[in-house]
Amino acid sequence: MQCSPNVLKLKINLIGLIQLFVVTLGLCNTAECLTYKIPTKGNIIGEYRSIMADRGDTLFDIAEEFDIGVGDMLAANPDLSHKPFKSPTEVIIPAQFILPNAPKEGIVLNLAEKRLFYFHPDGETVSTYPVGIGRQGWATPLGTTEIVSKKEHPAWHPTESIRREAAMKGKPLPLVVPPGPKNPLGNYAMHLGFTGIMIHGTTSPKSVGLQSSHGCIRLYANDIDELFHLSTIGTPVRVIYEPHEED
Questions:
Q1: Is 145 helix (H, G, I), strand (E, B) or coil?
Q2: Active-site pick, 3, 28, 33, 216
Q3: Which pLDDT value is given to residue 188?
Q4: How far is CA 170 from the centre of its chain?
Q5: Known catalytic residue: 33?
């Protein structure tokens, strides 16, 4: 299968339109399908696969199209260049995930896997998304909280510490960054009970799947759009650190 970024995007969007029907039939087992039946035995969802990417594609394009974190995509394809491919290239899609050992309700974020799981109210299905999390010195807090507010087209109010850091780098920030294409929160933000911590979009998709934020949780644009509309104020959120056994 040869897929350019545009073809991949069309394919993913078409699959998204039939996603709910596929889930109902228990056939949601492809990397493009974010929602899976919760297994009755074991804790594995999804599967590894490979595609033949076209000339000009990049690992970053493919990571976003197949909803894989950048770190996982790079780790699964260590011999491939980060630059656009010069010829059709086989790419591994590491789309097998381990459900966290936590109550299967609301949102569970596993920092070790840089992966968020949304357990649907039906108790039978789960949606999963890669996330960017807090980098060194700005750790995303562990614990149990909930969504306390939601905002479409949010303004960003950088904290004094963030503004001070930016100024030291020669990139001063205003007190408020208004909604728009330069707002690092993207189009949607959900505030958690942890002080200053949000689940939000990003203007830097290459940071999703990495330790890249000031403690907040970053999602690809399509993912935060979906999660924002699935979640409600009061949705429980558990932030855990649960590495794979081999880690």
A1: strand
A2: 216
A3: 98
A4: 29
A5: no
Range of the domain at 35: 2-98
pLDDT tens-place string over residues 43-60: 999 999 999 999 999 999
Please identify which residue in the block is written with the tokens 């960054």: 177
Q: For residues 105 and 237, give the distance between their C-alpha atoms in angstroms, rounded to a whole number.
A: 9
Catalytic residue among 28, 33, 200, 214: 200
Residues sharing a CB contact under 8 Å with residue 186, sequence separation 6 or more, in sequence order: 200, 201, 202, 203, 221, 224
Pairing of strands 125-130, 133-134: unpaired
Active site residue 216: yes
Over the stretch 138-177, which tens digit does the pLDDT of each residue have?
A: 999 999 999 999 999 999 999 898 999 999 999 899 999 9
Q: Would you say how long the chain is, in residues?
A: 247
Do 91 and 137 lie in one domain? The reply is no
Q: Which one is predicted more confidently, 23 or 222?
A: 222
What digits encode the pLDDT tens for the residues 171-220? 899 999 999 999 999 999 999 999 999 999 999 999 999 999 999 999 99
Residue linked to tokens 């949601």: 28
CA Rg value for the chain: 18
Looking at the structure, tell me whether residues 74 and 168 fall in a common domain: no
Q: Is residue 165 domain-shared with residue 92, that is, in the same domain?
A: no
